[in-house]
Write a structure and sequence with these properties.
alpha+beta, 9 strands, signal, 207 residues, 3-stranded antiparallel β-sheet
Amino acid sequence: MKNKTNLLLFFFTIWCVLSATVSAEAHKIRVFAWDEADEVYTEAKFSGGRGAQNAAVTVINRQTGQPVVTGKTDSEGLFMFSRSLLTGSGATEFDIVVSSGDGHKNSWAYSLTAVDDTVAPAAPPVAALQKSTSAPPSPDSNGNSGVCRELTAAELDLILEKKLAPIRRSLAQQSEQGPSLQDILGGIGYILGIAGIAAYMKSSGKK
């Protein structure tokens, strides 16, 4: 009788721990940030994938501990601010802290890149594919003049940013992602299984 009572108490304790773990994991905020051109995007989500809307966002200078940018996430859990707000602080290391207001908080370590996006690009070069001496080439039947303008550095950067932004976001999500709820439940189930077998063998040995 005593063994059965101890066994029931053991499983009840495990159940309480499991319930607390599931509840905490379900309300955990996941935070990640990435760059898009001169903007810094921050996204905050709960473990189920729902955006943490109206969550307070504070960008803190890691060196001084002072806030540099503050705001709130939108209905999808997104918050955006200009990188120029960070470059003006003279620091390079920051913590983006997101708090949902109910005690749940998480942060993302953000570092400024070495490239200064505020430098103005050089004047756009123009290359003529068809040489001309005096008069510009006459347009063809399709209305093309035969002159092709090279893309400026700023235009190339914009094209690259549009291509790289989804990759940066995906990498940020993957680097932030820890063990899933399924992984945690699987680990606890494995422990319960081992404990149950051990308790059964111990009980059988005493008979």
